[in-house]
Each structure stands twice: as structure tokens, then as C-alpha cells.
Write a structure and sequence with these properties.
With about 375 residues, this protein is an alpha+beta fold. It is built from 8 helices and 9 strands. Helix content is about 30%, strand content about 20%. It has one domain (about 25-380): Catalase core domain (Catalase HpII,  Chain A, domain 1), CATH 2.40.180. It binds protoporphyrin IX containing FE (HEM). Protoporphyrin IX containing FE binds near residues 47, 153 and 332.
């Protein structure tokens, strides 16, 4: 792969001296409600139902959510030099360059026409990371970051998410025509709401999301993580001019059920891409809560600050066969990583068994044994 790293950014203005200091991480920032275990059991049941239906429909084990991918990309993550101590935490404690794998997806568990427009996701796996591991991922050297194109999650906790997922599980089937119609209708409604200055996360989640280019989006972890001595949310923001030019640009999906994948392939045929990985430090547990994932942490009190650059070189598209093979063997999971980046809060706790269940089901059905890639795993990159 060509070396595409840009000059490291000039040291940005990291610290506003008037800003409140970040909250120190301690296990006491998490609080488990008594009914959380029941909610997690409900979530598992819904995910199993979705996975069973899509296996019946497609004859292939799919991810129980985020089944449809629009790109599988290989790149490099460069941790910035000279980060101040507040930001030099966990993976970001030392400057360095790591191989990285990315998968861009949309959130439903079934493989829908791209005109059914739902939230977008990006999963980033950093390879060859050293340090104390989270329980359950001791054997690996990967650090995963999973993000969607919204700064907060659509539900506050596992209990509320369990209800929403039940609804999603009951609409997982091939009734795509109806979903397309609903999606178009909701998009219209969303445009009206936006014109009035209101945004509706619920409508967007149901299929009213604008049909924007996935490479122009800014992605967010939406839920908090331990950030070494502190607590933070992550984001991945487009910074190269070619990516920034795609912000808010609609993709023409007429007669193109997989038009988003084609749009991404067309981009990388001609361009490299640079993103910034940023963190937003928690500076006040009341306005930046750990347990309520639906609260957007106010950026005016704690802006997202760059800690690393992600680069992907221009390349020719992979064949569908190669992409499916690679994606089936990859398992992104927020619980794959360093103890210094432990997932926090109710939604994140629920994700622990949810990803295992979905991953195990599709691995068995596809006859794949997951093995977290080491640095050599980046050698699988087909355009290297
Ligand atoms: C309780 C809440 C959640 C549950 C139960 C859940 C569940 C899942 C499951 C089962 C998968 C598929 C796993 C596999 O087979 O590989 C998945 C994938 C994914 N999730 Fe979540 N998730 C939750 C919250 C979130 C949040 C908060 C985000 C980010 C903001 C997120 C982003 C993603 C992304 C990007 C993928 C696709 C990963 C890939 O490309 O392989 N999820 N989720």
C-alpha cells in the first residue's frame, strides 16, 4: 500500500484553561439497575430471532444488525506526536502507526435496498496494540472502535433498547417494498422537521435518515468508554478536502440497490482519504452522563480533540467474493481492546453478550473460526 500519511497536524489548541478538568475514571461511575439482566436476555432473544430469519432468507450467516456493508477498507492509524498528558492515554499514550481495518455499514439486520435509508456505522479495528487487555480479549492485540453517524444513542439504556429491538426483530423479513415506502415517507417528514429546527432521532432510526454519502459523515461512539485515567466518547471526522466535499451530498440511488458501495468504490478509485480520530472528555457527570446513552455531551463544554489520524490509500475495488470472505472472518466488538478503553454504561454492558451471540451464530453458520488478526493479519489486505 502506498504511504499516504499527511504531515502530522500542527499541535492543535487542546486545552482551554477555563474548561472544567476531566472527571477521573473510577468503577463507581457505573451503576447497574436491578432489571438490566432481564433486558439483556430480551436483547439476546431479539438478536437470535433476527439472525435466524436472515439466515433462512439469505442462506448465509449475517451480522444480527449492521448486516449490509458498503466498504471494507485497509489503512493506517497514526497516533499523534506530542499529545498533552490529558490525551496521551491508553492506545494514545505513545505516538505510533498501526495497521487498521474498517467496515462501513447500515444498521438493520437484513440486506435492504440502499433506498431504505437508516443510520450508518463504521467499525475500526486497530492491529498490533500492546497493553493490559479487557477480560475476554486477552489473547488478541486489537483495539476496536464502533461508531454511528449520530453523537448520542437513540435509547438511554439496555431496558429501553430491548423494547426497540423487539420491534426491529418483528419487521426483519423481505417486506422491502413497504420499508422503501416508509423510508421515503419518513425522509419527507424529517426534512420538514429539520426545516423547523427539530431533529427526530426516532424517525431517522426507522428509515428517515437522509441518503447522504457515507464518506462525508462524521461518526461517533455515542456511548462512553474509559479513556485511561478519564472517561470519553470517540468520533471519526473526515478531514481530507475530498472527504469534506462529500458532507451532506446525496448519492443517486436510482436503480442502484447497492449504490452506496458503488459510490465508495468510485471514491477510492480516484482518492486517498484522511480522517481524524477525536475524543470528547467527560468534564461533568451530570451533563455528560455515563449511564444515559441518549444524552449528547455538550461540545461547547468539551469539544472533540484529535488524538490520531486514519488514512486509507486510493485503491481498486475488491471483488464481492473477496469482500464477503474477509467480512465473514472479521469480528468487530467494543469489548475487544485494552482495559484502558473499557466500554462503560448500560448500553455498553448489554453489548458484551450481544456481539458474542451474533458473532458465534454467524461463525457457525459460515463455517468460520474467528481469530483476531495480528499485525500480520493486515497482510491479508488484497490491494497491498
Ligand atoms: C445495546 C446496544 C447494542 C447492541 C445490542 C448491539 C448489537 C450489535 C450486534 C449484535 C452487532 C453484530 C455483531 C457481529 O455479528 O459481528 C453489532 C454491530 C455493530 N454495532 Fe452494535 N449494538 C449496540 C449498540 C451499538 C452502538 C452504541 C454503536 C455505535 C455507536 C454500535 C455500532 C455497531 C456497528 C458499527 C456495528 C457493525 C460492526 C461490523 O461492521 O462488523 N452498536 N451491534
Amino acid at each position: 500500500m502506498n504511504e499516504v500519511l499527511p504531515e502530522a497536524s500542527a499541535a492543535p489548541v487542546y486545552l482551554n484553561v477555563d474548561a472544567q478538568p476531566p472527571v477521573a475514571y473510577s468503577p463507581s461511575v457505573e451503576r447497574v439497575e436491578p432489571d438490566e439482566a432481564d433486558a439483556i436476555a430480551d436483547i439476546e432473544q431479539s438478536l437470535q430471532k433476527i439472525a435466524d430469519i436472515t439466515y433462512r432468507d439469505e442462506g448465509r450467516g449475517l451480522r444480527a444488525v449492521h448486516a449490509k456493508s458498503h466498504a471494507l477498507l485497509y489503512g493506517k492509524l497514526h497516533v499523534l506526536d506530542n499529545l498533552p498528558p490529558l490525551l496521551a492515554q491508553g492506545l494514545f499514550a505513545q505516538p505510533g502507526t498501526y495497521p487498521a481495518v474498517l467496515r462501513i455499514s447500515t444498521s438493520p439486520g437484513d440486506l435492504l435496498d440502499d433506498k431504505v435509508s437508516t443510520p450508518r456505522g463504521i467499525a475500526l479495528k486497530v492491529l498490533g496494540v500492546q497493553g493490559e487487555r479487557l477480560a475476554g480479549s486477552e489473547q488478541a492485540t486489537t483495539q476496536d472502535f464502533l461508531m454511528v453517524n449520530a453523537p448520542a444513542f437513540n435509547k438511554p439504556n439496555a431496558q429501553k433498547f430491548a423494547g426497540a429491538l423487539k420491534l426491529l426483530a418483528s419487521t426483519t423479513d423481505k417486506a422491502e417494498g413497504a420499508k422503501k415506502l416508509l423510508s421515503a415517507l419518513l425522509r419527507g417528514t424529517e426534512k420538514l422537521l429539520e426545516a423547523m429546527g427539530t431533529e427526530s432521532a426516532t424517525l431517522k432510526g426507522l428509515g428517515g435518515h437522509p441518503l447522504h454519502h457515507p464518506l462525508g459523515e462524521t461518526y461517533f461512539s455515542a456511548v462512553p468508554f474509559r479513556f485511561g485515567d478519564y472517561i470519553a466518547k470517540f468520533s471519526l471526522a473526515p478531514v481530507s478536502p475530498e472527504l469534506e466535499a462529500l458532507e451532506g451530498v446525496a448519492v443517486d440511488l436510482k436503480d442502484q440497490p447497492d449504490g452506496l458501495r458503488l459510490a465508495v468504490e468510485d471514491f477510492f478509485n480516484r482518492n486517498a482519504a484522511f480522517w481524524e480520530l477525536r475524543v470528547q472528555l467527560c468534564r461533568d457527570l451530570d451533563t455528560m452522563p455515563v449511564e444515559d446513552a441518549s444524552v449528547e455531551w455538550p461540545q461547547e463544554h468539551s469539544p472533540y480533540l484529535p488524538v490520531a489520524q486514519l488514512t486509507v490509500a486510493a485503491h481498486a475495488p475488491m471483488t464481492s467474493e473477496a469482500r464477503h470472505r474477509e467480512e465473514d472472518a472479521l469480528f468487530f466488538n467494543p469489548w475487544h481492546g485494552l482495559a484502558a478503553h473499557q466500554p462503560l454504561g448500560s448500553v455498553n454492558r448489554a453489548r458484551r453478550s450481544a456481539y458474542e451471540l451474533s458473532g458465534r451464530a454467524r461463525a457457525e453458520r459460515n463455517g468460520v473460526a474467528f481469530e483476531e488478526p495480528g499485525v500480520a493479519g493486515a497482510g491479508r489486505c488484497p490491494f497491498r
